[in-house]
Amino acid sequence: MNTYKRTRSPKSFKLAFVLTFLFGPLGLLYLTVRGGIIMIVVDIVLTLMGLFIIIPIVNFICVIWVFKKFIEYSKALVNEDSEE
């Protein structure tokens, strides 16, 4: 009987950082879909409220979020490899 192990593909930190830096929440989708959707909703709400000045701050928060999520993602990959 064949057994298959499902693995995650490694993601590039540089790509995640550049996408998030350039596109904000849209770039965040590369690393965390839930986080990207949350920040897109925040951007839409701020835009509808006319608070355009705060959107660069939201984009900066997205960049910080990428750092945090990439560390978590890397640790999860290492743990998967060590369980084999």
Q: Order of helices and strands, N to C?
A: HHHH
Overall pLDDT? 85
The gyration radius over C-alpha positions equals 16 Å
Number of domains: 1
What's the number of extended β-strand segments?
0
Taking the sheet with the most strands, its summary is:
none
- Multimeric state: single chain
Low-confidence stretches: none
Strand content: under 5%
Derived from helix and strand composition plus strand pairing, the structural class reads mainly alpha
- For the termini, the CA-CA separation is 18 Å
Helix tally equals 4
Outline: elongated
Give the arrangement of secondary structure elements.
Elements: H1 13-23, H2 25-28, H3 33-48, H4 55-82
Helix pairs in contact: 1-4, 3-4
What does this structure look like?
This protein is mainly α and 84 residues long. It has one domain (18-82). It is 70% helix and 0% strand. It has helices at residues 13-23, 25-28, 33-48, 55-82. The mean pLDDT is 85.
Question: Tags for this entry?
Answer:
single chain; 84 residues; mainly alpha
Question: How would you sum up this structure in a few lines?
Answer:
With 84 residues, this protein is mainly alpha-helical. It has four helices and no strands. α1 packs antiparallel against α4 (55-82).
